[in-house]
Amino acid sequence: MFGLAKLQVLESKINIYEELSKEMLDKLEKAVATISDNSNRVAIILERHENRLDEGERTNETIIKLIEKVEEKIDKVEDRVNQLSRFRWITIGVATTAIIIIKSADFFSMILNQKPTLTLNEESAIVRSIG
Length: 131
Description:
The protein is mostly helical. It contains one helix and no strands. It has one helix at 2-113. The chain is rod-shaped, with a radius of gyration of 54 Å.
């Protein structure tokens, strides 16, 4: 009987270990399933993140292109302003030169048309005696 009792104890222990093994296996399967689900979720999040990064890069490239176009337009406007400024100064120079030439011509014509005297009119040439 002693052998039979040991055998029953061993069978009982084996049954306990089997149940524990099944429970552990179930827990491991659940853990693997949870890890797999979490891994899939992380993969989806990473894919979305990569898509957002790609979209951000495309947006940045578009913004950079727009900024370059704006810079080109600003450069063109600056060139036009510089040209207008040069034109203004040239115009001022030409006008100043024309005025000087006209005034000089008036001055010379005035000198040529006057009498060769040092006074402008006769009254200013009269000397009065004091006394």
